[in-house]
Amino acid sequence: MKAVTINAYEEAPQLTDVPEPKVGPDGVLVRIRAAGVNPVDWKIAAGYLDPVLQVNFPLILGWDLAGVVERTGPAVTEFAPGDEVVGYNRQDVAQFGTYAEQVAAPVRTLARKPASLSWEQAAGLPLAGLTALQSLRAADTGSGDTVLVHAAAGGVGSLAAQIAVALGARVIGTASERNHDYLRSLGAEPVAYGDGLVERVRELAPGGVDAAFDFVGGDALPASFDLVKEASRVVSVVDTAVSGSGGRYVFVRPDSAGLAELGALADAGKLTVHVDRELPLAEAAEAHRLSQEGRTRGKIVLTVPRNG
């Protein structure tokens, strides 16, 4: 089968031929229709996660998928051939990823594809959606809260804003001016990031915010602690130092039930995925370049040709 691989850190991703996956007793073989691109993908390829993640080469990149079940392991009762699924296929060792025509995925990483989303939208949902959902839960976000979402036009931020709105929270989101109308379409109140952010947020919420979510790094974390009422409700997915100041660090975990919850929100019309760019599998290197620029509104997705 075709897959995007690297043979060493800092090597350009290439479309290559690799053996078809082996399916374990509690796994399913998924024919992939689209694969989501996330910043963690190019960070792994560059070696940035080497201190904490076992990587085996050749490495097939990617953790997000949307596709169709082709075959199931003998212990699997949750899915059957022909089922449409989404998955955050992160395993303990990085080697067999989702930038491929097929992948063997444990059932614990999968859920049924939301019917309301296209293949491309569905592929952009798992990692970013679960990151958003688990971050909101870490801060105990609920109805009546006023929350600050940093990088609210990005892949994670745009989903966090929508989920928070669905929970009944008021959302203030940081973004560049060109994305302010987009944030309004998600139900968020936009503010420009950069110098004076704390003052601009206080104009909208004079008493500060109940929770703050750092999805970008940089000045977002100190601004969050300046604005939040309780330090324990500052969450970062970027900076582990947040814990030293009383906040929470979140690294997204696979969660079938969480994926199902996101799918239910999507099918209820409360959550959508904005796909900024669709690129063919062979252009994974360009997708990584675009992701590294940090200007993406929503998600970048790789499309996989239908062969057979």
From TrEMBL:
Domain Enoyl reductase (ER), first and last residues per copy: 11-302
Annotated Pfam families: ADH_N, ADH_zinc_N_2
Highest taxon, organism lineage: Bacteria
InterPro entries with a match to the protein in the record: ADH-like_N (IPR013154), ER (IPR020843), GroES-like_sf (IPR011032), NAD(P)-bd_dom_sf (IPR036291), YIM1/Zinc_Alcohol_DH_Fams (IPR050700)
SMART domains in alphabetical order: PKS_ER
Name by which UniProt lists this protein: NADP-dependent oxidoreductase
